[in-house]
Amino acid sequence: VNWNTIAYVSAVGNANSLNNYSFTDKNINSKIVYYRILQLDIDGKYTYTPIKVLRDLQGNKNEVGIASVQGKVLLQFANEIKNPLIVRFVSLSGQVMDQQIIQNPTGQVVLNSKVTGNYVISVSNGQDVQTAKQIIL
Q1: DSSP string covering 21-56, please?
Q2: Is the pTM of this model over 0.85?
Q3: Element (H, E) at 85
Q4: Is the pLDDT score of 20 beyond 80?
Q5: pLDDT tens readout for residues 101-110
Q6: Which residue of 17, 19, 58, 92 is surrounded by the most CB atoms within 10 Å?
Q7: Contacts for 43 with CB less than 8 Å, ≥ 6 apart
């Protein structure tokens, strides 16, 4: 209901080319945080992105560690997950570039992918496992 502005990010170029923007919120003080972006044009027109929800999963028994080493993605599971997980390789512009399904993962799982570059790895089972981390492949 009540939104607070946490940052302003200025445009870097003209709208005919793709530009990437980022901001790290270092003042999170809640287990659930809602974000949306207001994109304001020079002519005063504006649009809002859909609202995104981030949940703090610390202490969750189904916590997943995510890392990259030599072009591979390493997933570390504290406990066996009884349901299939969907692992998505998402570009910084939000496009899903690769997707893999893992059945009942436990311990360390190494994933190979055909994508290279800077990606967000999203891991989800649609229920109690929801995590993401930005990595470079």
Answers
A1: ---------SSEEEE--EEE-TTS-EEEPPPEEEE-
A2: no
A3: strand 85-91
A4: no
A5: 999 888 899 9
A6: 92
A7: none
